[in-house]
Amino acid sequence: MKDRTSRVPHPSGHDDNGVAEFGYTQTLERSLGSFHTFAAGVSFISILTGCFQLFYFGFGFGGPAYWWTWPMVFVGQLMVALCFAELAARYPVAGSVYNWAKRLGNGHVSWIGGWLLIFASIFTLAGVALALQITLPQIWSGFQIIGDGSGPYDFALNGALLGGILIVFTTLVNAWGVKLMAMINSAGVFIELVAAVLLIVVLAFHINQPITVIFDSNNAPAQHHTDFLGAFLVASLASGFVMFGFDTASSLGEEAKDPKKSSPKSVLRAVNASFWLGGAILLFGILAAKDIKDPKIASGDGGLQYIVLSVLGDGLGKVFLAAVAIAIVVCGLAVHTAAIRSVFAMSRDNNLPFARQLSKVHPVSKTPVLPAIVVGAIGILILVVNVGQPQIFTVVTSVAVVFIYAGYLCVTLPMLVRRLRGEWPGEGPGKGYFSLGRWGLPVNIIAVVWGAGMALNLVWPREELYGDYPWGGVIAIATVTVLGFGYYWFRLRGKTMILAEHAAQPRGPEAAAEPSSLGPENAADLDPAVSEAV
């Protein structure tokens, strides 16, 4: 059976900022400026959230030398971001990874890519929500609502409670509308960027360690019964969990103004800003530590927060931790937003269960409300399932990162195949739009090798990441992938088509009657792009 959603040709004279190229009509509200899309990418990556959330983990396994995982991850993710920027200049559509894979590969690859990205976003939402537990109780002990923090499961239970409250908030905001989300997100990102710069300056004036300390493993590998390379690769999770989500800037392309020019810039600015600011925070945080061998730095209730408080004092230190808490909130908001767009994108192609309901755009809020609720509910369920797992943070974040790297491979790998066949870039979007040119092939190769290597590194069975269930990551990812693709293959594959309410407008009034779906029987009356798609 022909793949009904892949390789839709460009409908001449009917562009609509890239939406109609996929056979869609504009149903989302186009109201976001370039800063809004940049802010969405930055807040998904979230410098303060990521740096403060897993610093204790990276430092615990790699010592101060764990800092070198940051530039390593940046270089690899920059290659992916460059590929994405080139795609964003052509196809700035909701559910970017899903639709890009559809254009580059086929419907089967795009379905897997979209499915993995949805779960990556939901697990990331749960992981980000858990970050409140690492920060809020250090601002005020009253935030430790369950227990006093000394019980074996106090950390996980309270983290799930605080995380659940955050997810309820992000659900309500996203259901209300994209304008409210963008307003809160942009304000939060502004606060985050200002706080990040100020924190770097303040820490730079409180240096207690020589620069050479970042070459010291602090004997951490020996403590974990492994060699330095093994410990370094485990510690790379701390950096790997931060630098992804830059595709969010393009996933909001259907709601952005002039997205073919603004989206690529937003993607690259987000990942670059995160690298420089985050790298400086980590570097000066390590150099500012009073005692680099203090075990509190490598503990879940200590970490970078502990360094900031011990160096800057409770007053100023807690002001910065409050900024971190704000960053966590807007990060969760952006992650939730990205997940909603992925669900919406797949649903309008009838590629998810209850697709018609999930693809409905509320007439007032101009946003998909049901996906906001479903994503939030699953995110809370993930927290509830893991409340008895003391390593809840590393379990949830490890699975999230593996999902995202696998989902990104569904774009970069088909893109590389196209390049090797001489089928990419082909006809570009025109002069003045982002393009890799002759650098495209080497960048694409590195992006694929990097993505595959990191996915394998993080899914590898390890007690350090998955606790008493070292195969937990493999089982979780295999279960979601196999069961999901099985459902698609046997139930959805033959029904894949653009739903009528999201299809580009028919050519003539005789085709305006609303069909239940777009099938071959009415394809002749449609715009050429939609006709070919079905």
What is the element layout, followed by pairings?
Blueprint: H1 34-45, H2 47-53, H3 55-62, H4 69-88, H5 96-104, H6 107-139, H7 154-176, H8 178-204, H9 220-223, H10 228-240, H11 248-251, H12 259-288, H13 303-347, H14 355-358, H15 369-385, H16 392-420, H17 440-459, H18 463-466, H19 472-492, H20 528-533
Explain this structure.
- With 534 residues, the protein is mostly helical.
- It folds into 2 domains: 39-492, Amino acid/polyamine transporter I; 497-534, no CATH class.
- The protein contains 20 helices and no strands.
- The protein has helices at residues 34-45, 47-53, 55-62, 69-88, 96-104, 107-139, 154-176, 178-204, 220-223, 228-240, 248-251, 259-288, 303-347, 355-358, 369-385, 392-420, 440-459, 463-466, 472-492, 528-533.
- The longest helix has 45 residues, at 303-347.
- The radius of gyration is 23 Å and the shape is globular.
- The N and C termini lie close together (11 Å).
Structural class: mainly alpha
**CATH fold node name of the largest domain:** Amino acid/polyamine transporter I
Q: What is the mean predicted local confidence, pLDDT?
A: 84
As for the number of domains, it is: 2
Radius of gyration based on Cα positions? 23 Å
Largest sheet: none
Low-confidence stretches: 1-16, 507-534
H and E order: HHHHHHHHHHHHHHHHHHHH
C-alpha termini separation: 11 Å
